[in-house]
Amino acid sequence: SDQPTFYELVGGEPTFRKLVARFYEGVADDTLLRPLYPEEDLGPAEERLRLFLMQYWGGPNTYSATRGHPRLRMRHAPFRVGPDERDAWLRHMRDAVESLDLPEDQERTLWEYLERAAYFMVNTMDPA
Ligand code: HEM
Question: Counting atoms of ligand 1 from 1, which one is nearest the CA of 67?
């Protein structure tokens, strides 16, 4: 149909580029989260998260074309994602979402999804 996607409504790729770049600036300086990332260069991880979010919200399907089915819980299984990691992830993401200065309803839609997804990704209840 002619209905714009949420991806288009929030500004398309530049918006997701800004969101994820800001998020990874926070991760780069986070002593709890940074050691979880296996690669020295966070650039590839940044690209995967950006492409996933773009696809999720109705943008191009480049994520699945290059990575296959998301299966995000399975892909996070090698990493310790407890309540503290979740909260740290959400803190950086909150800062990144606010940096976009989106209209309130769009910000809420985006945030509610990210918060739910982060709770869903928790794979251990052991404190850090
Ligand atoms: C990958 C951590 C939540 C989406 C990763 C990686 C780590 C990680 C360490 C591997 C880096 C890489 O090589 O790509 C975490 C932590 C979370 C969290 C600590 C805390 C809750 C989320 C959420 C989403 C997400 C909520 C989606 C909304 C992704 C994606 C990848 C990824 C798309 C790349 C998967 C692939 O194609 O291999 N995450 N993550 N993560 N994460 Fe998370």
Answer: 37
Report the complex ipTM: 0.97
Angle of CA points 77, 78, 79, to nearest 5°? 90
1 CA to centre of ligand 1 in angstroms: 32
**Banded model confidence at residue 128, pLDDT cuts 50, 70, 90:** low
The CA 64 to ligand 1 mean position distance, Å, reads 15
Residue 81: predicted pLDDT: 98
List residues near ligand 1 (CB under 6 A).
33, 36-37, 45, 48-49, 52, 67, 72, 75-76, 79, 81, 85-86, 89, 114, 117-118, 121
Measured in Å, residue 106 CA sits from the centre of ligand 1 at: 22
Distance CA 123, CA 68 (A): 22
Model pTM greater than 0.90? yes
